[in-house]
Amino acid sequence: MTTDRLPVVFVHGLWLHADSWSPWVELFRDAGYDAQAPGWPGDSATVEETRAHPERIAGIGIDAVVSHYAELIRGLDTPPVVVGHSFGGLIAQRLLGENLAAAAVALDPAPIKGVIYLPPSSLRVASVALRNPANRSRAVALSRDQFRYGFGNALPERESDELYERWAMPSPGRPLFEAAVANLVRSSPAKVATGNAGRGPLLLTLGGQDHTVGPAVVRTTAKLYRRSPAVTDLKEYPDRGHSLGIDSGWRTIADDVLAWLKSRGF
Predict the structure, then answer these.
(1) 137: pLDDT confidence band, cut at 50, 70 and 90?
(2) How many CB atoms lie within 10 A of CB 36?
(3) Does residue 2 form part of some domain?
(4) Which of 23, 106, 173, 257 could connect to 135 by a Cys-Cys bridge, CB 3.0–4.6 Å?
(5) Which residue range is the domain that position 248 belongs to?
(6) What is the pLDDT of residue 236?
(7) 105-122: per-residue pLDDT in tens?
(8) Taking the CB of residue 4, how many other CB atoms lie within 10 A of it?
(9) Backbone angles phi, psi at 73, to 5 degrees
(10) Count of H helices and E strands in the chain?
């Protein structure tokens, strides 16, 4: 069905289900956008089903996810705004760099090729998968305590546990392995066209308390775009962690994204 509303596509990252974007989708639709949050290839329709069938997502890598969303985007009437969190933020940058998106927002995005330093906290979270090479072809789940460290460390424990019970699910380990060796591989799927001068605007956000994607990762990512004249903005939330898009403070982040889009003419 044709619509004159600008499409917005939300892309989740590892360990969260696409339905975790539901409040954002509703808010953006109310704001006049044609918003949707498709899952990754292999994702089941619900958190519960994904938990019950992790084999369906095992082995999915970054290129497969990019291709999945690229195919969806090509079916739209106009290039969308893509909003991604964590590895979804890396996917959003890939799509923007390949001129498939009109604009992109990357919330606490996973490291792209060119980011050399990873804080110890980021390495600790990634080690959930990386400590066993067999996890490259498996789906990996977080324990409640691991979720608390990686996502909910800036929240009261009760809220972190509630988010874990509601949204956490197994995710493929392969993207973590691909990101870990990105700077050693010429054709790494984590490589983004940061020098693309003709792309649309990009907003990067960072949480100052983020254990999964430390602030240094996002600041370095922003610097990798410095040779392009295209718009790259950075928004910092000093007291927020990796859960900033799904916790009780999500509306602050979402309203800021909406304001940014309006300021950039979307």
Answers:
(1) very high
(2) 17
(3) no
(4) 173
(5) 7-263
(6) 98
(7) 999 999 999 999 999 999
(8) 8
(9) -65, -40
(10) 10, 8
Give me the phi and psi of 82, to 5 degrees please: -115, 125
Amino acid at 251: R
Give dist(CA 69, CA 36) in Å, integer: 12
Dihedral angle of Cα 180, 184, 189, 195, to the nearest 10 degrees:
110
Task: Look at the chain and report how many structural domains it folds into.
Answer: 1
Please report, for residues 9, 29, 152, 162, 212, the alpha-carbon distance to residue 156 in angstroms, rounded to integers and kept in the order given. Answer: 30, 30, 8, 10, 17
Helix, strand, or coil (residue 84): strand
Which residue reads 């990105």 in tokens?
182
The β-bridge relationship of strands 139-140 and 171-172 is antiparallel
Q: 198-257, pLDDT tens digit by residue? A: 999 999 999 999 999 999 999 999 999 999 999 999 999 999 999 999 999 999 999 999
Query: For residue 105, which of 218, 235, 202, 215 has the smallest C-alpha distance?
Result: 202
For residue 234, tell me if it sits in a domain. yes
Letter for the amino acid at 53?
A: H
Indicate which CATH number applies to the domain containing 236: 3.40.50.1820
Distance CA 255, CA 163 (A): 21
Q: Is the pLDDT of residue 197 over 80?
A: yes
249: amino acid identity, one letter: G
Within a domain: 1: no
Q: Which amino acid is at 123?
A: L
Which amino acid belongs to residue 166?
A: R
